[in-house]
Amino acid sequence: MKNWILPICLYFLSSPLQAQVDKIMDSTIQTVLVYPKGKPLASPIIGLNTQDELLVQFDDLSARYQQYYFTIELMDMNWQPVALNPFDYIRGLTQNNIRDYTISSIAQQAYYHYSFNFPNASCRPTKSGNYLIKVFRQANPNELVFTKRFFVVEQEVPIVASIQEPFDASISKSHQKIQVTLDLKKIQLLQPELLHVAVLQNTRYNDVLISNAPSFIRGNQMEYNADRDFIFAAGKEARWVDLQNLRFKTDRIAQIQQLGYGSQIILKPDQSRATIPYFTFRDLNGQFIIGNTEGIINESQNDYAKVLFTYRTNNGMPYPGQSLYLAGALTENRLDTKALMDWNQVQGQYEKWLYLKQGYYSYHYILRSEKNPEPINDFRWTEGDHWETENGYAIFVYYRVAGSRYDQIIGFSSFNSIQNW
Q: Is residue 223 within 8 Å of 238, Cβ to Cβ?
């Protein structure tokens, strides 16, 4: 393979392409979780032809038994369906009954809790790539209730990655740049442009950065380190709220209102942290953990509460021409109507009500221009950006063999920014 330089080609995987990804179509479905067994904060990733398993869980607040089924669908790198028959990538059944469920007890909010492990004896992926788990009612795929992404990976390409300060002095102390080097000795790569590297920060899928243009190719080594490659806003450590006990105030709770039909939680108002000095603490990087402080069963005895998040601007006025989002896993890591904060003219503040299960939640506020959204400025006015911030990163290497109709994931790596400290 010759030493040569390709032009840079870096872009965002935009949210319109992901309209049906990580989406709940039925308001009675809550707390959809997909993660490796025993690792509730880990990304939903399994190895191809391994013993890895995902645990899939969700609650049905209609509180009556319903027959749910699941299937999986192979997607391309941009989360669009591939032109393959399901039997080309599924070993087993294309429709699988979800048999395990528990009826809630103790909780004021009645619900049925469903769960299943995947892959299992009746359904297993045969190709690597991006996938959706699709859950629907009554064996009718048209009665879809939610979709959730997961990844099946092969480890054919070793990845070496590190975090650097960006070359641009104007953002060198506020942003993080990821340098990636691939070892391709196992791959007969005839067309380098068919290989794409995707870098993800803190499971913010809407803003994954993808490049198919390495800075250098030297023998079997392919390096991505151009000036504008893989630069992310560093932000600050995530905000938090502890909802593990709905009877006692924790440090972020202003009021707990016990109503006849459930609890209503008013959180203390949030404000911009852009001018607050940086300090480090352990956080969940926008994730959440379902749990309680009373030793009861999380899955079927944890209750739900209506929770009010408020954000106050410095001048008591809305941000002109900007949209404010409550970002994190609590809003499915999607910047849509569920995450969009509403301006309350009377109170002079942004507000968002969410219905949440008992647990510990972390989140950020993201401010984006309505006309010219620029993710690199997401935290500039709401959180502030500091190069030292601890963030988690995941790297996926996609490869589409010439003539193929799907994108393999031939390499994966995850690391944390503090590994560079």
A: no
The answer to whether the beta carbons of residues 233 and 248 sit under 8 Å apart is no
Residue ending a domain, among 133, 153, 173, is 153
Predicted TM-score (pTM) of this structure: 0.92
- How many domains, in total, are found in the chain? 3
- Strands, E assignment, 260-348: 262-267, 270-271, 288-290, 304-312, 322-327, 342-344
What is the C-alpha separation between 131 and 79, in angstroms, rounded? Answer: 8
Token pair 């009877």 in the structure block, residue: 247
375 in a structural domain: no
Regarding whether 275 and 307 lie in a shared domain, the answer is yes
> Residue 118: which CATH number?
2.60.40.10
Pairing of strands 144-153, 45-47: parallel
Asked if residue 121 belongs to a domain, the reply is: yes
CB 166 within 8 A of CB 86: no
Query: Containing H/E element for 240?
Result: strand 239-242
pLDDT tens digits for range 309-368? 999 999 999 999 999 999 999 999 999 999 999 999 999 999 999 999 999 999 999 999
State the average pLDDT over residues 63-91: 97
Give the separation between CA 189 and CA 182, rounded to whole angstroms: 12
pLDDT at 322: 97
- pLDDT surpassing 60 at residue 419: no
Expressed in angstroms, the distance from the first to the final Cα of the chain is: 35
Q: pLDDT value at position 83?
A: 95
Domain contains 379: no
Beta carbons within 8 Å of 219's beta carbon, 6+ residues apart: 1, 3
Angle (CA) 378-381-382 rounded to 5° is: 80
3-state helix, strand, coil in the chain (%, to 5): 5, 45, 50
Could you tell me if residue 130 is inside a domain? yes
